[in-house]
Structure formats: C-alpha cells, structure tokens
Amino acid sequence: MLGRIRFRYAPWLAVLLALAATTAQAASLEPFTADYQASYLGMQATGTMSLAPEGGNRWKYSLAIRNQVADVSQNTVFDEHQGRLRPLSSSDHSAAVFKKKNVDATYDWKAGTATWSGDVKPERRGPVKLQPGDMDALLINLAVVRDLAAGRPLKYRMVDEGRVREMEWEVVGKEAVTVGGASKQATKLVRRTDKREMLVWIVPELPVPARVLQRENGMDTINLVLRSVH
Questions:
Q1: SS3 content of the chain, % helix, strand, coil (to 5)
Q2: Phi, psi (5° rounding) for residue 141?
Q3: pLDDT of residue 135
C-alpha cells in the first residue's frame, strides 16, 4: 500500500484501507480516526485513515501511508444521496524516491460525468458517463460494510481514473483476530483478480477493518494491522 509502488494501484490501496465508516449494526456514518501498523514487502510503515463531516451532508475520507521510501495521501469528498454514497471530488498524491504522481477527480452528478486531471493519461481524463450508484474505490468499501450487515450482494461499479470496473467481494468465513491484545471474531472477505488477491477482516463492533492483506502473484505485498481507533 505504500503509495502506488509502480504508481498504478491507488484504487487498490483505497480498497485495502477503506473498508468501513459504519459499524455492522449501524447504517449511519460516524467520524473516526484509525491508526495502523503497516508493512510493504517487509518494510515497516504507518497508516492513518479518518472520516470527518464537512457540513451540508458532505463527508471527507482521508488516508495517509508513510515509510522511508514512500508517502501517499488520498482524500474523497462525498455525500449521501437517496441512501447511496456518492463521490463529489477526490485527490490522490503519491511520492517515492523514483517518482511522484498527483491525480484529482471531479464527479459532476448534474452533468452526469466524471473527469480527471493531473498525472493521468489523456485517454483516461474522461469524461466518463456516470450511472446511479457509481462510486470510487473508497466509497465502494464504505458500502461493503453496510451491505455485509444487511445481507445484500457485495457487487459494485467503480469509476476511478477514467476506468469503469465491476467489483465483487466474497465472504469466505469467520476467523479470530487480535485487536489491542484482545481476540475478536471477524468476518473474512476476499476479492480476486488474475494477479491480485485482497483479504479483509471485519469485526462487527469496530468501525474499520481489523486487518487487511494484499497478495500479488502469490506473494504478500501489504499487511495492515489495526492499532487503535479514536
């Protein structure tokens, strides 16, 4: 998760870290700040994610990951419209010793289009036509927790960096995880593509994932362990 290593998977990074702004029992959004111990290919890092009200039914989700070689910050401003989380704007800033990348997005729901600017290929600047229910990677994962609690299908359409992708999470069982020295029962979710596998452990009483693991080509690349939520 440490940045876009090779600067091509920020949406995956968002998927990894953003899997809850609500508890399994509650559908309403609640502010939080969560601290994670992180590692990327064995290199230690720190991670922080937060959700804060912006006023006028708007919320801001923020993510920061840092270690000695990479620095990533992502933000999405969104509202809740007809029971759905709807992206309004986002920014994605990644820096490493070998490359930097900055991308900004605007989701114009009146025009029904999404556009991107900054370090993005011309063919991915948009506009991309929006459909009701479309979300960016962060908001999909806020919705996952709600839908998991309600027993709804975990299938979504992600519109991010000029691309449209169908996303689906699968519940693969229950596992015990340790949070703050205490053992808790978690629901384990997985999402797979040809090269990547993402696993997430969600504890009902926690507003954020207890653990997140990404694998690429069979190798563990990112591991996040929750330290505290406040």
A1: 10, 55, 30
A2: -80, -20
A3: 94
DSSP-assigned states of every residue in 61-127: EEEEEE-SSEEEEEEEEEEEETTEEEEEEEEEEEEESS-EEEEEEEEETTTTEEEEEESS-GGGS--
Contact assessment for residue 142 and residue 85, using Cβ atoms and an 8 Å cutoff: yes
Residue 102 CA to residue 6 CA, distance in Å, equals 14
For 31-70, write each residue's pLDDT tens digit.
999 999 888 667 888 888 899 999 999 999 888 888 888 8
pLDDT at 1 over 50: no
Give the distance from CA 183 to its chain's centroid: 25
Q: Among 22, 2, 21, which Cα is nearest to 12's? A: 2
Q: How far is 59 from 50, CA to CA, in rounded Å?
A: 10
165's tokens: 């992708």
- pLDDT of 160-193, one tens digit each? 999 999 989 999 999 999 888 889 999 999 998 7
How many whole angstroms separate alpha carbon 87 and alpha carbon 22? 17
Q: Hey, what are 99's tokens? A: 């490359």
Q: Say whether 15 sits in a helix, a strand or coil.
A: helix
Q: Tell me if 93 sits within 8 A of 108, measured CB to CB.
A: no
Instruction: Give the helix/strand (H/E) hosting 12.
Output: helix 10-17
Residues in a beta bridge with 176: 185
Sequence letter at residue 183: S
**107-142 pLDDT tens trace:** 999 999 999 999 999 999 999 999 999 999 878 877
